[in-house]
Specification:
Layout (H helix, E strand, L loop, with lengths): L2 H13 L16 E4 L2 E5 L12 H14 L7 H5 L2 H14 L3 E5 L2 H12 L5 E5 L4 H10 L2 E5 L4 H10 L5 E6 L11 H10 L3 E5 L14 H5 L6 E6 L9 E5 L1 H10 L1 H4 L6 H15 L2 H17 L6 E2 L6 E7 L1 H13 L2 E2 L1 E3 L9 E6 L6 H15 L1
Parallel strand pairs: 2-12, 4-5, 4-6, 6-7, 7-8
Antiparallel strand pairs: 1-2, 3-9, 8-9, 10-11, 11-14, 13-14
Helix pairs in contact: 2-12, 4-12, 5-6, 5-10, 7-8, 13-15
Length: 384
């Protein structure tokens, strides 16, 4: 039976400390959750502003479902494009300072659709080696030539761009790197794209809602704008709901409507989600106090974890990775925290490079200073 080979592969992964399992939440998303019947203080959600269980978003979703039902029933290009979708796209474009926007069901689908829709054979994609898996899959799907540069190495990116003389050129990057928490040098990247006539595709999944003026994202954080930037952000992290959007020049959006397979050939998201997201966008824009509190928690955590035998990687964002190195040691530390009622995910290869297994600590504006102190204390106890 072919199942025997699958079983052996899973056994090998388990021996290497790489086997993945799901855990079931019995409560809404929050810093204080119940998992498999046990209460935990959680530091592994991307709900950066604490909006996933916000009463205004719950009310908006209920109202949206009452008015628009619970399913779109068709693809956007057939009969699944509803007024709430259309309104939200205009709101999102205005929020990030772009002429047009397009909704996708997830950030993964957005990345697949954009890269595949804009480049193909004869073109070249330039990618940071630590980009998210969805960007890696997208560039392979596009069938364009791919050139990867060392993480954040603008000199190597410049060299690769200069060596490419034909076809469309598309530079793709995370804005905030999801496993390291550092921010791409977008200003320098844009300058290189202008110099070498390339597009810059920015995946701002972990910056939208958190960085920049009014939470407008990483482009606002750096104070940059350009027609050659194609911008993507997810709506299930800081926005607290679900989905993603791409914002760009109208001609780019029109191209994606016609050529992005992950947009064209899939059922639209429920219009009720767009009603909730319109409300979320208001809360993000008014959420400066949440962002200030989140920044204070980041500083508190970094100060509290100094002196530990594990390296806290350099990051000013809500993603604070504690580098352990060995897969099994990272799992053991995560389990020891869990025994103390604290849930922090252990991240291992292939999500991160070999030898860089880590605890990925993520903070939310819904956390309190007391919550952070509890985590800091537990880690110091385990370091002894």
């Amino acid at each position: 039976m072919p199942f025997s080979s699958l079983s052996k592969e899973l056994e090998t992964r388990a021996e290497q400390g790489l086997l993945r399992r799901r855990r079931t939440l019995d409560t809404p998303q929050s810093p204080h959750i119940t998992v498999d019947g046990k209460p935990y203080l959680a530091f592994c959600s991307n709900d950066y502003l604490g909006l996933a269980n916000h009463p205004q978003l719950i009310a908006a979703l209920q109202q949206g479902a009452q008015q628009w039902g619970v399913g779109a029933g068709a693809a956007h290009l057939v009969s699944g494009h509803f007024e709430p979708h259309h309104r939200l796209e205009h709101q999102l474009a205005a929020f990030v300072g772009k002429p047009a926007a397009l909704l996708f069901s997830t950030g993964y689908m957005a990345n697949l659709g954009v890269v595949q829709g804009l480049v193909g054979k004869g073109d070249t994609v330039f990618a940071d080696k630590l980009n998210h898996a969805s960007l890696n899959d997208a560039m392979l799907l596009s069938r364009a030539e791919t050139k990867r540069y060392r993480h954040g190495d603008m000199a190597q990116l410049a060299q690769l761009l200069a060596q490419t003389q034909s076809g469309r050129k598309l530079v793709i990057t995370d804005a905030v790197f999801s496993m390291d928490g550092d921010i791409a040098p977008l200003r320098e990247m844009l300058a290189l794209c202008e110099q070498h006539d390339a597009w810059l595709y920015v995946d701002d999944a972990h910056g939208f809602g958190v960085l920049g003026e009014r939470g407008c994202g990483s482009l606002s954080h750096f104070g940059i704008a350009s027609q050659r930037i194609v911008y993507m952000a997810t709506l299930g992290k800081a926005a607290g709901v679900s989905g993603a959007f791409v914002a760009a020049e109208q001609v780019v959006v029109d191209t994606l409507v016609n050529h992005a397979h992950s947009y064209v050939y899939t059922t639209a998201t429920p219009p009720a989600l767009s009603v909730a997201l319109s409300q979320s966008l208001e809360l993000i824009g008014q959420g400066e106090a949440l962002r200030v509190h989140l920044k204070q928690l980041v500083e508190q955590l970094r100060d509290g974890l100094s002196g530990l035998p594990w390296q806290l990687m350099p990051s000013d964002t809500a993603i604070q990775p504690l580098l352990i190195g060995d897969n099994l040691q990272a799992l053991k530390l995560s389990e020891s925290l869990r025994e103390r009622g604290i849930w922090v995910a252990a991240i291992r290869p292939p999500t991160v490079p070999q030898g860089t297994a880590r605890l990925r600590i993520t903070l939310s504006a819904a956390h309190s200073a007391v919550d952070v102190n509890q985590l800091v204390g537990a880690l110091h106890e385990l370091a002894c």
